[in-house]
Structure formats: structure tokens, C-alpha cells
Specification:
With 104 residues, the protein is an alpha+beta fold. Helix content is 29%, strand content 12%. It has one domain. A hairpin with a 6-residue loop joins strand 1 and strand 2. The longest helix is centred in the middle third of the chain and has 13 residues. The relative contact order is 0.19. The mean pLDDT is 92. It comes from Oryzicola mucosus.
Length: 104
């Protein structure tokens, strides 16, 4: 039985991150079924991102995006230099709790 597409993407991304200061973790599901294969990028104190419509061979794009994110001084993944799959596949950008306003 061959690995599922998400498992392949996770394994390939983990391998591509070897030796880089990027942590890759796998989760069972992001609940983004309409956008198929998905990944999230998180960074402490920064916006978080969810990408969909990825392919099993999108590991290099995820690593490129993670490197852009890690080097961003404003905590946002810059549009310039972002792989096309991460431009087209953006599902959500979620603010860090530290910048949200309490409505009560």
C-alpha cells in the first residue's frame, strides 16, 4: 500500500528541512477538505497561514515559504519570492492573539 498524499508531502517536507532551522510536524487533518492537500505555517508571535490545493511534491515550495517566513522582520510571509502554489493556495491568514482586540 502506497503512502497517502499527505504522508508523502509531510515526509518529503521533513527531509527537505533537514539541517535547516525549520520544524516540521504532521497532523491528521486541517479540516480543509474542499482545498484538498493542506499545510499550515506557524511562528511564535506572528500571523499563521493555512495553504490548500497543494500537491504531494510541494515540499520544496513549503520550505521556501518557511524560509521566507523565518526571515521576515514583520512576521508576514512576503508576497515577492513566495512560490506560486503558496500564492494561489492561501486559504487563511490568522492573526496572533497578541494583536487581536477584546470586544467585551
Amino acid at each position: 500500500m502506497r503512502p497517502r498524499a499527505g504522508e508523502k508531502l509531510a515526509d518529503d517536507t521533513l527531509a527537505a528541512a533537514h539541517g535547516l532551522p525549520i520544524h516540521v510536524r504532521s497532523v491528521e487533518c486541517l479540516g480543509n477538505c474542499k482545498r484538498r492537500l493542506s499545510a499550515a505555517m506557524l511562528r511564535d508571535g506572528c500571523w499563521s497561514y493555512v495553504f490548500g490545493d497543494l500537491k504531494p511534491d510541494s515540499a520544496a515550495d513549503l520550505i521556501t515559504g518557511a524560509q521566507l517566513f523565518a526571515n521576515a522582520t514583520d512576521g508576514l510571509i512576503p508576497w515577492r519570492g513566495r512560490p506560486d502554489s503558496l500564492k494561489r493556495g492561501l486559504v487563511a491568514r490568522i492573526p496572533p492573539l497578541s494583536i487581536t482586540k477584546d470586544l467585551t
